[in-house]
Amino acid sequence: MSGHAPVMLAEMLAALAPRAGGVYCDATFGGGGYAGAILDAAACTLWAIDRDPDAIERGAALLARHPGRLHLIEGKFGDIIALLREAGVSRLDGVVLDLGVSSFQLDEPARGFSFRADGPLDMRMGRMGPTAADLVNTLPERMLADTLHELGEERRARAIARAIVAARAEAPITTTARLAAIIRGVVPPDRSGIDPATRSFQALRIRVNDELGEVARALEGAARLLAPGGRLVVVAFHSLEDRLVKHFMAEAAGRAPAPSRHDPAGLRRRAAPGWRLLTPRALRPGEAEIAANPRARSARLRALERLAPVAEDAGTEESFAR
Questions:
Q1: Does residue 18 contact residue 38 with C-beta atoms inside 8 Å?
Q2: How far is CA 168 from CA 23, 135, 164, in A?
Q3: Residue 115 belongs to some domain of the structure
Q4: Per-residue pLDDT reduced to its tens digit, 34-52
Q5: What residues make up the domain containing 150?
Q6: Within this chain, do residues 92 and 215 fall inside the same structural domain, yes or no?
Q7: pTM (predicted TM-score)
Q8: Sign of the C-alpha dihedral, residues 85, 89, 92, 96?
């Protein structure tokens, strides 16, 4: 599909290893790049989830190409268990998550994700809930600074929050261009060439869409749905998201650090892991892909395979990670 270049596509397919007759889920449908590749790779069934109604609408062409094999569901990927169970699906042979904002969302000024073209300060991946404009115009200064620092890792978060509060006292901040100008007035350009507004926009987007919460819920949900031999493949672009994925997979595969010898928990025998880590280190895109698609630069791919039968009582992360 035009406007969308799926990142690390070959690596994703190798890690997921779709097979004929399998049932898979692309929980972040987006532009349909991964979904189309999975369906082309094997005579399998694919369930695709996206909270963005525009993405579901764009999927019509792919539906026509794969009648009866592709099923689209509008919803949040953090609700993967409820969404699939409602559709009658209780087990999967593979799940893929391509985290973050899609190229379509970034390239459409009306969605308000990017400062590269002026548009309304929205940033919602769906159509519900508070917008980025709501946050920058109503959050107390300290809470705004904490958001920019924690979710954007912005070192000048307090100064930016102070400038935003002063600016909104004059007039509400409603456009991406005005917010970007306020941030650039506080944060000088650096040698990296990254726009000074990048980290703040990223932080607001993550908060508007509760992206870290969605990732945590999706990882847990996917793990509960995977059958023995099933694989979870995650591509992350943001360090906070990748950290969540890394820790989740390490814990599942029994690679979490052992307790201190002074901790009584260290005396207990550790249960054998029910998962195999397919990527001891995250895979990175090659130089050719980065040259062709600069947005791929920060991508990290991690994959995990279920080894043991799924426990009936999977009420906690610990129970399904073993």
A1: yes
A2: 50, 11, 6
A3: no
A4: 999 999 999 999 999 999 8
A5: 127-208
A6: yes
A7: 0.85
A8: negative
